[in-house]
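Re: that chain you flagged

S.,

Sorry for the slow reply, it's been a week of failed gels. I finally had a moment to sit down with the sequence you sent. For the record, here it is as I used it:
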Amino acid sequence: MRRTDREILERERIDSIIRRCGVCRLGVVSEGEPYVVPLSFGYDGSAVYLHMAGSGRKLDALRTGQQVCLEWDLPGRVQRGEDACAWGQAYESVIAYGRPEIVEDQAGRRRGLELLMSHYAGEPQTGSWDMRESVLARTVVVRVVRDRVSGKARDPEPGR
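Prediction finished late last night. Pasting the structure tokens below so you have them in one place:
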């Protein structure tokens, strides 16, 4: 990382940023070109769970098993300066790398979707979500275990 003064090394802070984000951006190589898509996600502290339909460009890219990149960010206030080059923006962000795994078993898919639902409900409720078996059977869940992660921040707003 070029700006080591902005690097976040504390695992708790990295996890906090991920948990406060509403969107995870997934970067893959698809059809020979970069492809980035925003997604809903679930997170258990070491793996990210994504869900999607049973076909499409994103899933085709994930099925190759090639390493993917995940990105989360929390933008803050714009910081004004004396001239254009002195302007900036406060932020907190995380980038992670890992390999995707299609979750094949029903119990694993349920767990991934429960983590996703709990993330957006704002409280842990794993095991208490009612999911129709027909929907669960046709939903693709992908698990990405982080093998590298880094965080970065620029003057985040107090209390975040």
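What I noticed first: The helical segments are 11-20, 57-63, 106-121, 133-138.

Talk soon,
D.
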